[in-house]
Amino acid sequence: MNAIESAAVRSDPAVAPAPRWARWAAHVAALVALPSGLWRIGLALGFPLGYTEEGLRALVGPSAWGPVYLVALSVLTEAAAMLTLGLVQRWGEVAPWWFPFVGGRIIPPRLAIVPAWLGVAVLTVLWTPFLFWWATPHDDMTALGHALVGFLYLPLVAWAPLLAAVTLSYQRRRRLSPVVMA
Question: What domain of life is recorded for the organism (predicted)?
Answer without folding.
Answer: Bacteria
